[in-house]
Amino acid sequence: MASVREIAARAGVSKSTVSLVLNNKPGVSAQMRNAVLQAVQELDEQPTRKKNDTTTFGTKKRTIAVFHPPVLRSSYVFKEVLHGIQTAATEHNVELRLVINELNSSPQHVSNLYLSDPSLRPDGILVFHAQQNEPLIDIAKRLGIPCVALGLDIQNYDVSGIGRHETRHAREATEHLLQLGHRAIGFVGGDATYDYAHTRLAGYRQALAAQSIEPNGRWVALGNGYNALETILRDAPEVTALLFVNDTYANEALPLIQKMGLRVPEDLSIVSFDNTDIARNFVPPLTSISYNQFAEGQWAVQLLLNQIETPYLQQSQVIFGAELIVRDSCTAVQTATQKEAGTPA
User: Fold this and answer.
1) What tens digit of pLDDT does each residue of 191-227 get?
2) How many Å apart are CA 108 and CA 117, to the nearest integer?
């Protein structure tokens, strides 16, 4: 049988997901489970690959610099994307360099040297968790270095990249709560520096507007999850459901919910993003938008190598879908009469 690493690479999922499927454990969507089982079957059926097989992009070793923020709020997301990047880099004989994206620092900082010193300049650049206004992308264009971005709503940017329909998925997550009868829904957490906070907030607002609900300013709070939720619960006690910008911010806020003696989902229904261990292991498990970060990392390397090897390829973008994993953190809103009577919604 193929190794867990080989199955993960074939299916475009993480090794932990493969392990869950092979051990028949819960916490994996039907779509991902089928992808893993299909990969197992295909790998078992194919002939053993010879050791001297060459990669898709030949034998020349390319160098890719992966620029990432100095501070990453979600180690899980970074780990999954980086695992995908490393897997694809190994497959295609690529040398990786991890670089902190600190272009505003000293000219001698390594992030600047990789761009200013031709002898250190990589063949291509991956920008992980790009900011809304990402100067690195413009610098790469000026220097003629192929560049691929992850973490932007790339449909709104003139750049190659791995994209998502972030606004659409946030709208779907909010619609799930609306279908359960919630009307006062809070939006919690997020760093305004990064694109995902704005696109997910836009989807949340679109869903409310479609139901003729004017989002109350007191229902939205960005920043640290604990502080943001504290503000909402203080200023908007009418809120019955919460959309967290991602699991990391939810994890910061969940202790406050427990401290205040609030019950999930009886007092607050919760939906989040990223479907990490945080969402899967909370009691009750959180409904969450699930992305395939591992496959995104793989495809980012593939897109970048395509641009390196094919200079006339001006731009390429791959849009990944997502799945709303419905769990027990959401329930139908109760009316005042139901609450007084103790009747389930």
Assistant:
1) 888 888 999 999 999 999 999 998 789 999 999 999 9
2) 10
Asked if 191 and 83 sit in the same domain, the reply is no
Instruction: Tell the residue number behind the tokens 């997901």, with chain if given.
Output: 17
Closest CA to 326 of 266, 268, 286: 286
CA–CA separation, 89 and 104 (whole Å): 28
For 101-244, where are the alpha helices, taking DSSP H only? 110-116, 135-143, 166-179, 195-210, 225-235
Q: Are 74 and 247 in contact (CB under 8 A)?
A: yes
pTM to 2 decimal places:
0.77
The two structure tokens encoding residue 301 = 């390397």
Please tell me whether residues 36 and 150 are part of one structural domain: yes
Task: Check: CB of residue 11 under 8 Å from CB of residue 83.
Answer: no
Tell whether 271 and 150 lie within a shared domain.
Answer: no
Interacting residues of 60 by C-beta distance below 8 A, sequence separation 6+ = 93
| Same-domain status, 55 and 69 | yes
Where is 22: in which H helix or E strand? helix 15-22
Do 138 and 72 belong together in one domain? yes
Strands (E), the chain: 62-68, 94-100, 124-128, 147-150, 160-164, 185-188, 220-221, 241-244, 269-273, 287-290, 317-320, 323-325
Residues 155 and 278 in one domain: no
Range of the domain at 306: 4-164+292-322
* Rounded-to-integer distance, Cα 272 and Cα 176, Å: 12
Number of domains present in the structure of the chain: 2
Do 45 and 135 fall into the same domain? yes
Closest C-alpha to 92, from 113, 137, 67, 123: 123
* Dist CA 88 CA 302 (whole Å): 7
- CATH number at 228 reads 3.40.50.2300
How far is 41 from 35, CA to CA, in rounded Å? Answer: 10
Do 189 and 312 have their domain in common?
Answer: no
pLDDT tens-place string over residues 142-183 = 999 999 998 777 776 788 999 889 999 999 999 999 999 999
**Which of 284, 283, 278 lies closest to 74, judged by CA?**
278
